[in-house]
Amino acid sequence: MLTGVLATTKAPVSTIHIVNVFPHDQKAFTQGLTYHQGYLYESTGLQDKSFLKKIDLQSGKTIKKVKIKAEYFGEGLAILKNKIYQLTWKNHTCLVYDLQKMRLTGKLFYQGEGWGLTTNGKVLFMSNGSSVISCVDPASFNVISRLEVRDGEMKINNLNELEFIRGEIWANIFMEDIIVRISSQTGRVTGWIDLSKLNSQFSRWQGRDVLNGIAYDKAKDRVFVTGKFWPEIYEIKVKPRKSINPN
After folding, report:
1. Which of 1, 18, 39, 155 could form a disulfide with 131 if both were Cys (CB 3.0 to 4.6 A apart)?
2. Cβ atoms < 10 Å from Cβ of 12
């Protein structure tokens, strides 16, 4: 039975099929995840325990890891034009790295909190835990425009980790086992993905935290999801539910 926003929405609600399962560092407090040229890049949080990591998908092994200064709490990340952009939670600071060497090359600044980050290949999209996604200039980090995410007339709050997929922005909803699909042009909700099926995978795992982490392999059209302190990364396919909401 659908509950919460999934029970009332008029947008399509999909479920998932698990295609593949890959290992994930269960000590990783995943805040941001992206896929680039055969590798996963991950931003992890917690004070004085935040990292930027390059990961081999198949083995789950960390190829390179950069520890962030203790003052920063790592958040969302995105890769654009050979640069890695990594948000911090309450420091109003985006850390910028050279992609090849993962060497810190600069800092950009913003107002408010930093949560999720993604890109359409031209600009950056940033969430802050509210219903608003900011479209940001990657050179200056100035806000170009803002999208207020709505399902009909209802604002969708707690937008967290972001990923740009097939022209849409997909967002984790903080503390929920759902992903919202958002028009990158209007902010309108185009659909929902119910990931509660993943809960059945965790009966033997202790200490896992919430769903957080979406990555997209555009070349092979693959979607990956994971969470904070999750021992696995899941490649998923989205499929329509067999029954739809009556409204």
Report:
1. 155
2. 16
